[in-house]
DNA sequence: TGGCATATTTAGAATAATTCCAATTAGGAC
DNA sequence: GTCCTAATTGGAATTATTCTAAATATGCCA
């Protein structure tokens, strides 16, 4: 195995050594930065390829590890569409996903202020909602 | 390969020969009946095991084929939770899924009459919605 | 600063749901 | 019955993801 350095000093400019309780290694930084730079909901493999531009030596396994760590610490969301590979996004504001069937692009859509999803549903009263996942498929209006 | 019969006559009681535009072979009938009997959102493998009770010779590949055909013809819905195996349900009424984190049971929840999801979201006007998929995780109230 | 315990990274193997394939079998029309 | 096409089948292939064991890096404390 080739000897590679893993960052040495903690803060090399961009991030503090710890973000959201997660120690920021060089690899985690690279993965996180990829997700902050382009918010187009890349797959783990997409992230891997992009992270390699920053860090030639990073491995796919590490990308998976880093993504898992980032998700667990709430810095990143993991999004699943049907049986497709998971996608990741760093948009932490509450939002739902709109899958444009024409372009394949995934847009983040926010709730209108004050909107409460629970009001629309026949949930037994007293139900505790911990997580909501909403995906919409369709087509955006023609031109723009 | 052992010779097995595939149903011979068309209507053997339960279903017409064609349902929703889909020719009902013995295997498709068995798979469909499994989903009509127990609406607990079984996986393909669950369906396979249950279908075997009706038809010893059915294969897993066929169960996948049948499920695909049933889904394509709109007789059955395919439901995906995160990265878990797909689940299938024959409840065609519009509903969302509530995943009880304590019991693992998946409940079908309907919208309140007149509820319009689009009203809650910041969708560009003119957006055409073709499909909505909503999953909620949480806990139902205590006793009950 | 050096040494140690622990956490992280890594390459590659393993896993699991699903799809594909090529061959057999069944169903319907004539 | 015969022929044509559709459906079924077992097993191999695929693919995203997880696991494993070894190498490496980091933080801490003397």
Commentary on this structure:
- Two copies of one chain form a homodimer.
- With 144 residues, chain A is an alpha+beta fold.
- Chain A folds into two domains: 18-88, Arc Repressor Mutant, subunit A; 93-138.
- Chain A is 25% helix and 22% strand.
- The first copy, chain A, has helices at residues 26-37, 44-54, 60-72, and strands spanning 18-19, 22-23, 77-79, 87-89, 96-100, 106-109, 128-139.
- Chains A and B meet through β7 of A and β7 of B.
- Chain A binds a DNA duplex (30 and 30 nucleotides) through α3.
User: At the third CATH level, what is the topology name of the largest domain in chain A?
Assistant: Arc Repressor Mutant, subunit A
Strand order, largest beta sheet of chain A: 6-5-7
What series of H and E elements makes up the topology of chain A? EEHHHEEEEE
Mean pLDDT of chain A: 88
Shape of chain A: globular
Number of strands of chain A: 7
The percentage helix of chain A is 25-40%
The helix-and-strand class of chain A reads alpha+beta
CATH class bucket of the largest domain in chain A:
Mainly Alpha
Individual helix count of chain A: 3
How many domains is the backbone of chain A divided into? 2
Summarize the biggest pleated sheet of chain A: 3 strands, mixed
Taking the alpha carbons of the first and last residues of chain A, their distance comes to 52 Å
Strand content of chain A: 15-25%
What would you give as the CATH superfamily of the largest domain in chain A? Winged helix-like DNA-binding domain superfamily/Winged helix DNA-binding domain
Instruction: Give start-end ranges of low-pLDDT stretches of chain A.
Output: 1-14
CATH architect. name of the largest domain in chain A = Orthogonal Bundle
Biggest interface, chains and residue tallies: A-B, 39 and 39 residues
Evaluate the radius of gyration of chain A.
18 Å
């Amino acid at each position: 195995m080739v000897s590679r350095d893993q960052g040495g000093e903690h803060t090399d400019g961009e991030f503090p050594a710890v973000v959201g309780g997660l120690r920021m290694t060089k690899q985690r930084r690279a993965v996180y930065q990829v997700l902050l730079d382009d918010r187009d909901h890349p797959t783990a493999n997409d992230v891997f390829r992009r992270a390699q531009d920053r860090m030639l030596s990073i491995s796919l396994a590490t990308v998976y590890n880093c993504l898992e760590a980032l998700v667990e610490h709430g810095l990143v969301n993991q999004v699943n569409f049907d049986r497709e590979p998971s996608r990741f996004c760093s948009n932490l504001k509450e939002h739902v996903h709109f899958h444009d069937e024409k372009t394949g692009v995934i847009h983040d859509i926010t709730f209108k202020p004050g909107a409460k999803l629970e009001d629309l549903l026949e949930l037994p009263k007293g139900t505790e909602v911990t997580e909501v996942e909403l995906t919409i498929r369709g087509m955006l209006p023609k031109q723009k």
